[in-house]
Design goal:
heterotrimer, A alpha/beta, B alpha/beta, C alpha/beta, A: TIM Barrel, 22 helices, 50% helix, B: alpha/beta, Rossmann fold, 7-stranded parallel β-sheet, 12 helices, 14% strand
């Protein structure tokens, strides 16, 4: 059909439906057009825009085989209370068929405080496991072969310390560092912009990150040294396009910093990984995943001149959207998570965490975690969604939306470049402000019922309080304090002092890679709080930019 | 609660309640101020102003800490704009001063500009006076330096520091008219950014053109408040300014001027309010207005009649 | 008289999720309140002392980490110790229903769980502020 004919037919269609749709004003102003046709993908070029899976620009996926080979890694984020308790949960999950571990740490650990620090009061073991020293880490991975399992650690500001502890535990198990597989989140920029568990100012934080890149490229070659995260940016309220735009801008800042520190882009780029949110709007999410791969491939190839195809690939871990879980009628969350899982799988994720139905109320129980894992298994084995690579490609809507999100993403990257890059944009509060605007807009849409959340602002029922929620024993804090007191009494305190002093000196010299010094300190059982305390002393602390 | 008495005895709660009374124009505000007035006049009042994003709060935080190191007690009044649409405000300056919260020698109070542009400067001056009466050695008044009302607020200060940042070229054009006169000291904050030399040169040039107060040429200091650099130097300059003020007699002159202005403003306000009250309670105001409208009376004669009637003038 | 309802919005503990706190702060501002926002990682002592200095009518705390049973009552007690007996203390975040009676008994006037419209928070404050 010639374009002119098509345009005319499209106009006729529009005129016809607009009349009959007058009865449905509430469905009038949705974000996307009501119908997509070849007119929306004019100039579409298969080779240029999509190509084949595993080939530039990777729109269709980073591996040639995708799920016709292996499924994505099913990785449930878990951790609470003490190392002993979490170890039990990890072993349970591995027995249930989970294929990778994902460690959640409590807030004191994430912000570099020991459990006996006064500021840790009430927080010990609450949102994850409390790790104070190598001794806790040894218990956490007891009877888990670190040579066989891949471990993802959600740790950012003190990522170097937790990675050092992991390497030290492996060494004790007789597993060499170059045999280790896993990921540290290590993405400080999104902490400033959205998640809030920062410690040091940007400059020394970026140094720690590049130190890790360099150390791992030589010593822990299979380790994913960073998981550049849009997840939390989305959770903080951004749109889909903002999620990938701000995250890729962060990615650009990390690559810039590493190159500035003297690293060769192809030496570390292959170990960069990303972390997306799987949100409610299934097809928009699919387009987001596809657009993000295309943008990153172009950034790495064209902007940074990376030569290895592996450096161009955006490999991604995904988590379903925690902020979309409702406290009302929590069983409905199972359905939400199933749809979000479909989005992540159709979008071609490399690994996935599915949230549990009760997480708007508390940490998940073992039963609800099992349902969440089963959701992934059902999508993988029963739904057929994983049977064909990038099955939605060629849909007018999906391709048009992929293009649109890509364009929005480039516009933001351009704006952030003009501001001086992601670090400056965060220091100026630009990114935070954009996210907050979107968050506020969302909330107002929900309150004005322009956006319906089932069970929250429509279809409500009178509900009984949910029973059988998971509770973290309040004595965890006391137990950790006692363990710390014993540790401080038993360990070789002279050695601790010596290694911490060496670390302090090294920290003062910007050219020194701190990883070996941190490793030395944790091996003699210096605590996380002590190591971070030394770095706090030298680096200072970040002061948040808040604009409302 | 005997607010003034407890305040003078050192109660922080009473201090806080006194400020509320003034801010909300409670009836007891006048009696509180009457009790406190004789205890005021001792604090060194420092105004901190400049465009949004210049780092005023961080700078105030660092200066306050430096004064605390010298053993001086500090009060901080942070004024933020009220939304003209809702009448609400987000007062976020404290975020930069969280470390000072638990220092008993420091008291921080955030204020919204609320609706009363004219009244704001009086209220701020009174809040400063309350902190002064409480015994604070140094009182900071921090506000965004755009618009006349903020400039008026800053007039409560003995020493005014205008904070600027490089790389915001347009702002200096926009505000230079107002700030040049009120700035006793200029601080170029975030001085690790590009454009600091250009900004300093521009400022010097503008100061060259402005020769009103020839015996004090406002010095320009460079700071990076977030890292604490330049703070000691700025503090020395501030202390130098207060020294200059007292030695040159300017301090007495400034304070006399201020006292006079405040007295006149109070008289104006109270007489105005009294007359208005009388007029409204008799329902005369509308009648008078309509007669003047119809040119049956003129406003000049009307005022002189009113003064005669209510003030026996 | 120019009275305004003053609210301190604070994030106690170490939790960095401030989407809710910020949305609430803005909604309260838009409802005509004066909102003193103190940001992340505030200790109960800091929250109570800032409330005193600002002479707020309401202290609104948001916490998603599960430390509410420790931190909320501590703030209430510190406020009382400081003589701030007429402050309305409210909390929000991921808080299990089972914890709410205990928190109320400890002096937290109301707990807003996920999904609460900001308008409800505004209404609650307007009708309960002293």
């Amino acid at each position: 059909m010639a374009n002119e004919t098509l345009k005319a037919k499209m106009q006729a269609y529009t005129a016809k439906v607009e009349k009959s749709l007058e009865k449905f004003p509430e469905r009038k102003n949705l974000a996307h057009n009501r119908l997509y046709t070849p007119l929306d993908v004019e100039g579409f070029d298969y080779e240029r825009d999509l190509s084949f899976p595993g080939e530039f620009p990777f729109t269709r996926g980073v591996q040639p085989t995708m799920y016709r080979g292996r499924f994505w890694t099913m990785r449930q984020y878990a951790g609470f209370a003490t190392a002993e308790e979490s170890n039990k949960r990890y072993r349970y999950l591995l027995e249930q068929g989970q294929t990778g571990l994902s460690c959640a740490f409590d807030l004191p650990t994430q912000i570099g405080y020991d459990s006996d620090d006064p500021i840790s009061e009430g927080e010990v073991g609450k949102v994850g496991v409390a790790i104070d020293s190598l001794a806790d880490m040894e218990i956490l991975f007891d009877s888990i072969d670190l040579g066989k399992v891949s471990t993802s650690m959600t740790i950012n500001a003190p990522a170097a310390v937790l990675l050092a502890m992991y390497i030290a535990v492996a060494e004790k198990q007789g597993v060499a560092a170059d045999q280790l597989n896993g990921t540290i989140q290590n993405d400080i920029l999104k902490e400033y912009a959205a998640r809030g568990t920062y410690i040091f100012p940007p400059k020394p934080s970026m140094r720690l990150i590049t130190n890790i890149f360099e150390y791992c490229s030589k010593n822990v070659p299979n380790w994913n040294t960073i998981s550049i995260s849009g997840y939390h940016i989305r959770e903080a309220g951004s749109t889909a396009a903002q999620e990938i735009a701000f995250t890729i801008a962060d990615g650009i800042a990390y690559v810039d910093a590493a190159i500035k520190a003297g690293l060769n882009v192809d030496d570390f780029a292959g170990r960069l990984s990303f972390f997306w949110n799987a949100h409610n709007n299934v097809l928009e999410e699919v387009a987001k995943f596809r657009a993000s791969r295309r943008v990153w491939a172009k950034v790495m190839k064209e902007r940074f001149g990376a030569a290895k195809p592996k450096s161009w690939m955006l490999r991604v871990h995904t988590q379903t959207a925690g902020s979309m879980l409702t406290a009302q009628q929590p069983e409905n969350n199972i359905v939400r998570v199933a749809l979000q899982t479909a989005a992540a799988v159709l979008g071609g994720t490399q690994s996935l965490h599915t949230n549990s139905k009760d997480e708007a109320l508390a940490l998940p129980t073992e039963d609800s975690v099992r349902i969440a894992l089963r959701t992934q298994q059902i999508v993988a084995y029963e739904s057929g969604l994983a049977d064909v690579v990038d099955p939605l490609a060629g849909s007018y809507y999906i391709e048009a939306l992929t293009n649109k999100i890509e364009e929005e993403c480039w516009n933001y990257i351009k704006k952030i470049d003009e501001l001086g890059g992601a670090v400056v944009a965060i220091e100026k509060g630009y990114i935070q402000k954009e996210i907050q605007e979107s968050a506020y807009k969302w909330q107002m849409e929900v309150e004005q019922k322009q956006r319906i959340i089932v069970g929250v602002n429509q279809f409500q029922i009178k509900e009984k309080p949910v029973e059988g929620l998971m509770r973290v024993d309040a004595s965890v804090g006391e137990m950790q304090k006692k363990k710390l007191a014993d540790l401080r009494a038993k360990r070789d305190n002279a050695a601790v002092k010596e290694k911490l002093a060496a670390l302090e000196n090294a920290a003062k010299d910007e050219k020194t890679n701190l990883m070996p010094f941190i490793l030395d300190a944790v091996k003699v059982y210096a605590t996380l709080g002590e190591v971070c305390g030394v770095l706090r002393k030298v680096f200072g602390e970040y002061e948040a930019h808040v604009s409302l | 609660m005997d607010i003034a008495g407890e305040l003078l005895a050192g109660s922080r709660l009473a201090l806080s309640r006194a400020i509320t009374a003034v801010e909300n124009e409670y009836d007891e505000a006048v009696s509180i101020m009457q009790r406190l007035y004789s205890h005021t006049g001792k604090a060194h009042v420092i105004g901190i102003t400049g465009p949004p994003g210049a780092g005023k709060s961080t700078l105030t935080d660092k200066l306050a800490k430096a004064y605390r190191q010298q053993g001086k007690t500090v009060g901080i009044v942070a004024v933020d704009p009220t939304s003209p649409f809702s009448g609400g405000a987000i007062l976020g300056d404290r975020i930069r001063m969280n470390e000072l919260t638990l220092d008993e020698g420091v008291f921080i109070r955030s204020m919204g500009t609320r609706g009363s542009l004219g009244g704001l400067s009086r209220k701020t001056a009174e809040v400063v006076r309350i902190l002064d009466a409480f015994g604070k050695d140094v009182v900071f008044v921090e506000t965004v330096g755009v618009g006349q009302s903020e400039v008026d607020v800053i007039k409560a200060a003995d020493t005014t520091v205008v904070v600027l940042v490089p790389g915001q070229g347009d702002d200096i054009q926009a505000i230079k008219a107002g700030i040049l006169e009120i700035g006793d000291i200029f601080a170029i904050n975030k001085a690790d950014r590009d454009g600091v030399d250009r900004l300093a040169t521009e400022l010097e040039m503008m100061l060259d053109l402005n020769q009103n107060e020839v015996d004090w040429r406002p010095p320009i200091e460079r700071t990076v408040a977030s890292q604490g650099s330049g703070i000691a130097e700025l503090l020395t300059t501030i202390d130098g300014h207060i020294c200059f003020l007292s030695q040159s007699g300017h301090l007495t002159r400034r304070r006399t001027d201020r006292t006079r202005n405040e007295l006149l403003a109070l008289i104006e306000e109270h007489i105005g309010r009294y007359v208005l009250q009388q007029l409204s309670s008799w329902g005369q105001l509308d009648t008078l207005v309509s007669r003047i409208e119809k040119r049956e009376k003129d406003p000049y004669t009307t005022v002189s009649e009113l003064l005669h009637m209510y003030l026996r003038y | 008289m120019e009275k305004r309802i003053r609210v301190l919005v604070a994030k106690p503990g170490l939790d960095g999720h401030d989407r809710g706190a910020k949305v609430v702060a803005r909604a309260l501002r838009d409802a005509g309140f004066e909102v003193i926002y103190t940001g992340l990682r505030q200790t109960p002592e800091q929250i109570a002392e800032a409330s005193l200095q600002e002479d707020v009518n309401v202290v609104a705390m948001s916490l998603l980490s599960g430390a509410h049973n420790t931190l909320f009552p501590k703030v209430v007690n510190l406020l009382k110790e400081k003589g701030m007996n007429d402050v309305l203390v409210v909390g929000g975040g991921v808080i299990p229903d089972a914890d709410i009676p205990g928190l109320k008994q400890a002096g937290v006037a109301e707990v807003f769980t996920p999904g609460t419209p900001t308008a409800n928070i505004v209404d609650f404050i307007k009708s309960n502020v002293k």
